[in-house]
Amino acid sequence: MKRIVTIAVVLACVLSLGAEEINFGFRPIPPYVMKDKNGVFSGIEYDIVIAALAVKGHTVKPSDYPLARLVATIKAKSIQGAAPILPSHDTGATLSDSYLTYNNVALALKKKNYAFKSAADLKGLGVIAFQTARAVLGPDFASAMEGNSKYVEEGQQVVQIKTLFAERVDVAIGESRILAWFIKAPETGVDSATPVQEFRIFNPTYYCAAFTDPKLAADFNAGLKAIKANGTFDKIIAKYTK
């Protein structure tokens, strides 16, 4: 019995070798990353990062930053990891495999009976989009919005939803899960039972995590593969998108 206990202790020590508490930066936006009044983090992105790194025994010390500052902070190596990051952010850090796909959509009230097939179909409509949308969504969208006096960019998705449901615009442009979250959020104050229709007329965005240590990126990739195989990944998504 004593020998079995000793072997178990040795195995535990071996498994914990190289495990770290990682200073990790997140961009807060529901349902991907949220922080309550007590400073407790949650959300799709947060839970995926925690679960993937835990496979190799790592823990996370989280902090939150606006996206531009998050990119600058990981670039300066002031933190060890960051998400969400794109190759175009040019952080100089090692990028993981893509762990999450963001889908920007055109969202409209269903009663409008739109049938958008491309960004060009939005020309002339009242559109409220996220900040920098014309730069992010490509030349076709930028061209469609050129000279449109009814086009506006808004940094708060809750305002996008309120404006759309009040019928002050025809279309809201944003990430699918984020817009869906704010439709249901009590603080938005809209009738969440109102039928809406989303049009996936933009290319998806494949986000990665960035690490200053390539080994941590490799550990994250291994963990991500493991949580996808054992069902944890899908459970995390379902938890926040019911």
Task: List the topology elements.
Layout: H1 2-16, E1 21-26, E2 34-35, E3 41-42, H2 44-54, E4 59-64, H3 67-75, E5 81-85, E6 94-95, E7 100-102, E8 104-109, E9 127-129, H4 133-136, H5 139-145, E10 151-153, H6 157-165, E11 171-175, H7 176-184, E12 196-199, E13 205-211, H8 214-229, H9 232-240
Parallel strand pairs: 1-4, 1-5, 9-10, 9-11
Antiparallel strand pairs: 2-3, 5-13, 6-13, 7-13, 8-11, 8-12
What can be said about this structure in brief?
This protein is of the alpha/beta class and 242 residues long. It is 37% helix and 22% strand. Strands 1, 4, 5, 6, 7 and 13 form a 6-stranded mixed sheet that branches.
Shape summary: globular
CATH class of the largest domain: Alpha Beta
Overall mean pLDDT? 92
Return Rg in Å: 21 Å
Number of domains: 2
**CATH architecture of the largest domain, please?**
3-Layer(aba) Sandwich
CATH superfamily of the largest domain: Periplasmic binding protein-like II
Helix content: 25-40%
* Total DSSP helices: 9
Number of strands: 13
Structural class determined from secondary elements? alpha/beta
How far is the first residue's CA from the last residue's CA? 47 Å
Task: State the low-pLDDT regions, or none.
Answer: 4-15
Order of helices and strands: HEEEHEHEEEEEHHEHEHEEHH
CATH topology call of the largest domain: D-Maltodextrin-Binding Protein, domain 2
